[in-house]
Design a protein that fits this description.
Blueprint lengths: L6 E2 L2 E3 L2 H13 L3 E2 L4 E2 L2 H8 L10 H30 L6 H17 L1
Parallel strand pairs: 1-3, 2-4
Length: 113
């Protein structure tokens, strides 16, 4: 899979310096790093322990970071969906016949094991 189809989301970020280093490191290798991040917070683990989602945090700052990350994820997904749709329209997508053939090959391989 090509790097332009991948995106990195930063989780459990402990500080602004750590976030900066992680973004620089991943950027060095040509990866897209999504905006926003999920900070390392005991309160987020406690939320999850009580059956809540991290996006249900009472902290406006934390929710803002998570909202930014989610928005960035949705934008990347939308971009990829648009690209896939354009490829299909222009005849560069995988045809159903090719998909069926690959599924058949996988089933045969699984059966032979």
């Amino acid at each position: 899979m090509s790097k332009d189809k991948l995106a990195v989301a930063l989780f459990r970020v402990g500080s602004a310096a750590e976030e900066k280093r992680a973004r620089a490191y991943m950027g060095e290798y040509g990866y897209t790093v999504l905006e926003g991040h999920v900070p390392e917070k005991i309160s987020l683990r406690q939320l999850q322990d009580s059956g809540h989602a991290i996006a249900e945090s009472p902290s406006g700052k934390v929710n803002g970071l998570i909202d930014e990350l989610m928005g960035s994820m949705l934008a990347k997904l939308s971009e990829e969906m648009g690209r896939a749709s354009n490829d299909k329209v222009q005849g560069r997508g995988v045809s159903n016949d090719n998909r069926k053939g690959r599924v058949k090959q996988r089933k045969e391989l699984a059966r032979d094991r």
